Amino acid sequence: MESQEVVERLVYTVDEAASALCLSRAGLYELIRSEQVRSIKVGRRRLVPVNALREYVDAAMGGAA
Description:
The protein is α+β, with helices and mostly antiparallel strands. The chain has helices at 14-20, 25-33, 50-60; strands at 11-13, 40-42, 45-49.
């Protein structure tokens, strides 16, 4: 039997991040444009770090952790 190592994801695609926040792609792109959600560009791809989503939600809740 082979054991498969589980790798924790560090980034999401825009579609995955939008789904995680229950937003549309356009809604997430607006948050990225307004610098409320951090993102990175890798080639032509826009990726959203997992911790950027957590930071956005924490800020939206008034900084409550």
